[in-house]
Amino acid sequence: MNTHLKKITHTSLLIALVFLCTVVIIIPSPLGGYINLGDAAIYLSSYFLGPMLGFLAAGIGSMLGDFYLGYVNYMIATLLIKGTMGLISGYLFQKEKYILGSISGLMIMVIGYYIFEIILFHNLLSPLANIPYNLIQGIIGVVVGILLIKMFKNAKVKISF
């Protein structure tokens, strides 16, 4: 299989994984968002794909999850926020800084959605209500993501292009 086709195939599969992890188990949060396991899939995708393709897998998979679940007003913000999570964590994972990459992704997500919700709700206070929910989701994503990365790394599973 040629390199270009491998990249498309692996990226597509990981977009689907992020999507499924985003929509299979959802817990609504107070201001219209939801808690899910998509962040763990984002970290796993970024580990395998690196920063640029990690951006695509994270951003597109998460954005499609928002569309599927009816959170259309979050779609563009999700593409950018989750894509940036994939980009930064993928870059740090390449340098084998897994905890820093995951914590950076967590902070990007929490701060990114807070800023977006300030714009969406036109105030600084009401978006504060979602921060604990985003932190819960983010921490779960960090723990599960790091465990999955360690498991695949120990098993010497790699995607090569």
Automatic annotation (TrEMBL):
Signal peptide: none
UniProt cross-references to InterPro entries, sorted A to Z: ECF_substrate-spec-like (IPR009825)
GO CC terms: membrane
The keyword Chaperone is assigned to this record: no
Superkingdom, taxonomy of origin: Bacteria
Keywords: Membrane, Transmembrane, Transmembrane helix
Entry keyword annotation includes Membrane: yes
Segments passing through the bilayer: 12-35, 47-65, 71-93, 105-125, 131-149
PANTHER family, per the entry: UPF0397 PROTEIN BC_2624-RELATED, UPF0397 PROTEIN SPR0429
Protein name: Uncharacterized membrane protein
